[in-house]
Amino acid sequence: MSPPRQQVNLYQHTAPGWRPFGSVTLVLVLGAVGCCLGIIWAFGTWQVARLQQSVDALQRQQAAQQTALSALGSLQADGAHPVDLQARIRQLGSELAARERALTLLQAGAVGSTKGFSAQLAALARHPMAGLWLRQITLSDLTGSMSLAGEALDPDRVPRYLHALATERVLAGLRFDRLVIERPEAAPATAARAHAPQRAPTVEFHVDGTAAPAQLAAARAPLP
């Protein structure tokens, strides 16, 4: 008869219990809290910006009202009466109407051309001549006069230059009434001038031209 035996099982299989505060759960909770805080911060920032815009608008309105009150206060301090204000308004209206009439006359060319002298200057620029230099140009649209002054290597170049200008339409109405050509006096010789390069002798000229009224009006007419 064999002695009795007893078997003891030391391995016990137990299922892991659920831990409510595990690492994964904690990360998820912190992420959700962070998202909520971000949304709350963005909403608060948007509300603060709207409030700042409202405050700026109220400040501008307050400044405009303050300016209006200051203007009214100055009128009251001056003792302005409604009748005086109406008279002042009528006076300012009359001045404005007079200025508008003057502006209309200026734009219509009653006191001269409002386009300047670009056409005349362009005509002068289209006829350069070697050996002739313009030193002074005077133009008047009221009288249609033109004055030119300059230098030339020889006197014969001046009439040729004036003949070339006569081919321009904007200068066709000019009549040169006065032409002066003279040779400048030689400067006294000095030690410094003795070693300086000698300049070719030139003559100085000055010409004055006027335009007849009919020719002036034709010259002012717009180009076709």
Textual characterization of the structure:
- β1 and β2 form a beta hairpin.
- Helices cover about 50% and strands about 15% of the residues.
- A four-stranded antiparallel β-sheet has the order 1-2-4-3.
- It is built from six helices and four strands.
- The relative contact order is 0.07.
The tally of helices reads 6
Percentage beta strand: 5-15%
Terminal-residue CA separation: 147 Å
Give helix and strand order, one letter per element, not per position. HHHEEHEHEH
Query: From the alpha-carbon coordinates, what is the Rg to the nearest angstrom?
Result: 48 Å
| SSE-based structural type | alpha+beta
The largest pleated sheet is described as: 4 strands, antiparallel
* Helicity level: 40-55%
Would you report the number of β strands? 4
Strand order of the largest sheet: 1-2-4-3
Query: Mean pLDDT, nearest integer?
Result: 75
Spatial shape: elongated
Can you tell me the residue ranges where pLDDT is under 50 for at least 5 consecutive residues? none
What is the secondary structure topology, with strand pairs?
Blueprint (H helix, E strand, L loop, with lengths): L22 H55 L4 H27 L9 H8 L6 E8 L6 E7 L4 H9 L8 E9 L8 H5 L7 E9 L1 H8 L4
Antiparallel strand pairs: 1-2, 2-4, 3-4
